[in-house]
Fold these 3 entries.
Entry 1:
Amino acid sequence: MSKITISLVKADVGSTPGHHMVHPKQVEKAREMLSEAVKGELIIDFYVFHCGDDLELLMTHRMGENNPEVHGLAWNVFKTVTEEVSKPLKLYAAGQDLLSDSFSGNVKGLGPGIAEMEFTERRSEPIIAFAADKTEPGAFNLPLYRIFADPLTCAGLVIDPSMHRGFTFRVLDLKEDKHVDLKCPEEMYDLVSLIGTTNRYVVERVYRTLDSMIACVASTTKLSLIAGKYVGKDDPCMLVRCQHGLPAVGEVLTPFGFPHLVSGFMRGSHIGPLMPVGLKDAKCTLFDGPPRVVALGFTLTEGRLIGLNGSEPADLFEDVAFDHARRTANLITDYIRRHGEFMPARLGPEDMEYTTLPQILERLHPRFKPHS
Ligand code: 13P
Ligand code: 13P
Ligand code: MG
Ligand code: MG
């Protein structure tokens, strides 16, 4: 049997009101187009969902990674939803993440975020699709470190012989557009020194060191680097394979029980806690936040996405076990927002998605006097 590819492609193509939520008609249009693609046998299965104002297309197929037809399909869905739904309904920031008018075979570099991996389906293939809103790709660095390198989080690293040699992290330098592979536990301190710098170094892939088996892939799009200016935050998504020689579903979810601080929030220019939520709560409000993350669980069966109730996935963060994380995230939000526009609640000028600072400095320039 040929290999299966799973592609999670996302874009913000407009929302209501403001940057709050994707409109149901956008989801409906995307579903309609992907159903046609199943009939045309380009893809095997799909699931359309959203996290806040980001439209997420989860697709399975046998076309491999970076396939122009599959990427073209996703691009077409985002363009059509923008033209036929977002613009007529005057949704906010229609087509926000589509930075080009022309498609040339791959969505990478054009604005949408993508997490995509090809593998041979195992006897059972549990997979979790993550999507976050009001944050950036570096938001997954800390949980990925805990899942694949921290023996206090992932018991399998200690107990399971096939995980005992650890995992290799592919870390992308977003500024230089280069990557480096770092093996854990051997190079753990090097890894942490890089990925602690969440606005520059991001984990792109994780492999099981024993046999280079792909375990995880995350989107790494940085819109501000593509466009050279503010065009919206780069809300990330990722795919994680689980169980049988890889971290268990519960080991993959555990780090999100700690609502760590991430960049994003209001106007992409603040820090806030990443709140794990079920799909029904994947919508930002207070100060356009706090930032949210959802986790949807499936079992892949010959490329079909097997959920719990028809094609509905297991909505993993909906569970009461994450109530405590949500309460903590609300407390942290309250504490941080009392700082207003003072760092570190507000990001440093180089990380703010947009700022009036240059204009203010220009206006005040003549009034700055030498200070002895
Ligand atoms: P606007 O100028 O587009 O209103 O930008 C603010 C914003 O939407 C960020 O929340
Ligand atoms: P999004 O990146 O989710 O569109 O949010 C933009 C923003 O400015 C929110 O305040
Ligand atoms: Mg938006
Ligand atoms: Mg968003």
Entry 2:
Amino acid sequence: MTLRVLSIASEAAPLIKTGGLADVAGALPAALAPHGVEMTTILPGYPKVMAALGKAKPVHSWPSLLGEPARLIKGKLGAHPLLVVDAPAFFARDGGPYADGGGRDWGDNWRRFAAFARAAADVAAGAVKGLAFDLAHAHDWQAAMTPAYLRYDGVSLPSVMTIHNMAFQGHYGADIFGGLGLPREAFAFDGVEYHGGVGFLKAGLEAASAITTVSPTYAREIREAQFGMGLEGLIRSRGARVHGIVNGIDTAEWNPETDPALAQRFSVRTLPRRIANKRALEAEFALDSHDGPLFVVITRLTWQKGMDVLLEVVDHLVGLGGRLAVLGSGDAALEGALHAAAARHPGKVSVRIGYDEALSHRMQAGGDAILVPSRFEPCGLTQLYGLAYGCVPVVSRTGGLADTVVDANLAALAAGAATGVQFNAVHYSALADAIDRTISLYSQTDVWRGLQRAGMKSDFSWSRSGKAYADLYAALVEDR
Ligand code: ADP
């Protein structure tokens, strides 16, 4: 029996991407197909998404979707079915999915994503002729009102709510409640009410049949205040209904044997060829060329990612003979501080501000180690790409970083299982110690090769995680 799942996401690669959520939503349909799941993705009709649709005919229309006219259009996300909510009043805007060109959030995001979720709930519940679903799977706060709408519509369809990052919750004032089209009783402690206002993610977590997040460690961490960010009590109360499933990587996109972005392709059997990528990266970043360790960082420049602490250890790293290449964008103060560090250490530290997918591939292929000093990290993808490319991850022990990198302690080294370096807390001395350890491991050529090989052989394809989602869906549909 094929299970029909509607995946509700505010972004999905390759059509629209601002971060890791897009990679996951884009990869899920193919990851689930081998496990008897037909996944249809539903997206908002941003200009980029509409342009990719061409001239498709609408399959449904809403004279008033939270007050605005909207249509539903069928398309394709790669080889898989796609539905698009074409509501020009909400989505036909230049700029990003959530913010204008200047980076300011659209002031009506609550209404835009409530409307999107309202439409998705209608579709999931079978309001559109010819479309039927067994389960709804909502991603992050932008889709989180879908399970809430299903609940207050009295629809018993099972639903899954996935948290990709607890830091983004969609929290608004109580004054928006009247615009959501929900019955009065929904504004309740166990409904959409959250600290006197309305919480989108909170509402979804209350209403969904099951909750998932993107690693087992993060699933445990969000039970505590430091990571739960106000929702820890709710997560604890949902107990066994909270699951952690690690993200996979797209191995067609991220394969050093076939990657067209690289100066020199390589595999676990031809690791010495990697050096050509290191030389090319040194040239691209105007770094001194030598055999000492080259660290890379590829990231959003934010507090979450620990970039302030990275800045504190730059002098230490350079003092030990290391070099550092950073690709990132985000916080202007961090950008400025990184430029200043590069100016202090010409030939040793170099920074590119911006978002550059191809360069990120070249950095994973040419760097010796990738630094990921995140304060919290639900799953993290850059350490997985590092593993696949022989760029040894040096990571804080949190969330998905803790679950996917095996620390090079003596036991793991002896067993040949080590794939990277972990450190406990994101502050100066812990990161400096981790860099010391990394440089010492790097100086032992055979040990370092062993780390690279073990990383490249570890399996972070979607096959295991696809099965985990499929099993969860099947159990929920059976329970119904
Ligand atoms: P998050 O979703 O919190 O930003 P993840 O590690 O889960 O962190 O995913 C980040 C994704 O974005 C990865 O695919 C990473 O390679 C990519 N990325 C982040 N910053 C940049 C950048 N400046 N240029 C290119 N790719 C980037």
Entry 3:
Amino acid sequence: MARNTGDEWWRSAVFYQIYPRSFQDTNSDGIGDLQGIIDRLDYLNDGTERSLGIDAIWLSPTFPSPMKDFGYDVSDYCDVHPDFGDIATMDRLIAECHRRGIRLLLDYVPNHTSDQHPWFIESRSSRDNPRRDWYIWRDAKPDGELPNNWRAVFGGPAWEADAVTGQYYLHSFLIEQPDLNWRNPGVVTAMHDVLRFWLDRGIDGFRMDVIGMIMKHPELADNPPNPNWKAGDRDRGRLLQTNSRNYRDVFAAVRGLRAVLDSYPERMAVGEVFGTSEEIGRYYGDGALDGLHLAFNFQFIQEHDSDASTPWEAATLARIVRNAEASLPAGGQPCYALANHDRSRFISRHDHDGRGRERAAAAAIMLLGLRGTPFLYYGEEIGMADVAIPAGRLKDPARIRTVGRDPERTPMQWTAGEGRGFSSVEPWLPYGPAVSNVADQAQDHDSMLSLYRRAIWLRKRERSLMAGAYREVTAAPDGVFAFERSAVGARPVTVAVNTATEPRAISLGPGPVTVLVATERALEGTVLNGDLVLPPLAAVMVGGS
Ligand code: GLC
């Protein structure tokens, strides 16, 4: 088995998430497509420091789908939605990525299908259909109540009555997203075959959607009430998810998926998982590391079971990393993101005083300095913020019962012009104000894009950043999160992030050090002896001279 050599490509890679509807439209339908991604690959990495320098792409779902949940409701796992192209375009995208040394991950959605998937259409057709048990069907309780008390993540009960057969089916998300029954061996085989279908075409791996939910309590026992829930909190927090998420049987199912990946060279999976740092750590497969290669730690976005966005505050950031480092099995590597298609964009989460942009720049330095595999969300590198969407143009059905996700999914801003370089027609979601865009920022050495490029390429040059150990600098002053990265035979790199809105003095050790990258560009290249005064909200990476 290809397992844990310590120098696998995904350990040193910078990943970039593309939301395909919003990256680049080439066929003038207002929706991004795969050809658009091909056309923009040189922007992502052309092998020179003029490009962003990312190493791998994760594509949000590109499969045929009724698009109730914008592709997370799959009706055919082994094809491409016509909005995005066809399988031949996908093959070309794979080839064009590989030609540039970029790896490509698809989004594997194992917990549920669309209600339009042929498997579900068969399953719901009669109680004795051979695929009946591929989904989770239950009678109402004798008193007419729902089969259990589970709630859908998007709000409301997780059960939908089906008139044809008089039973309820489980849907952990939308009514149009029935949950597959992973206790049925036919489902396991079919879903493993989906992985093989794409691995055979050259896909390098998968982001695995809500992987922690595929195995439920065998009797679907009620979830216990959450003792911390208060009136006014979100509905979905009312119950603990003890029996529907991170249930103990899920880890064996994950090992099964890993075995499929291990039968191909150099493939990987990153799981979308939620829970405490300990729960996240378990997805790596304990001591044997036979689980997922990586599991997302979203705590910089939102801490475990909190409705609030994580504050940009040094002590909190340090604690999150400390817990992540302590909870992974030996050889396990953290995986962090500052944003994704489900959460308000970083700048918007941290802009209460109008200084979200400064914090976003510092966050880039932190993310790219940490031990772990960083995932960037498209547009983050140009400082895109949430776009206020007029009520008539809202699209995300999740908004009906919980928070809609349209504002963070708007089209990439390539230029300032009409159509923003994205499309020649009205886009599926509005662009919002023409603010930051690739064309302008590419010319501007003080731009967010320039900072991202410098930090990403620096990371590739400094072995300590790519592969070094992590040590928190505990002597950092209040309001500064600082850590050192060091690898044998390479110069150590120290990262210091000032989350305070006042300057902070920090001592960076006895010998002279050089500022390698900084939010304040003027600091770069400065050689320091000892102390550095970090401007408000600034961040630096420094290395021995
Ligand atoms: C994940 C996806 C989200 C989707 C949900 C249901 O959380 O990131 O976008 O709505 O799963 O598939």
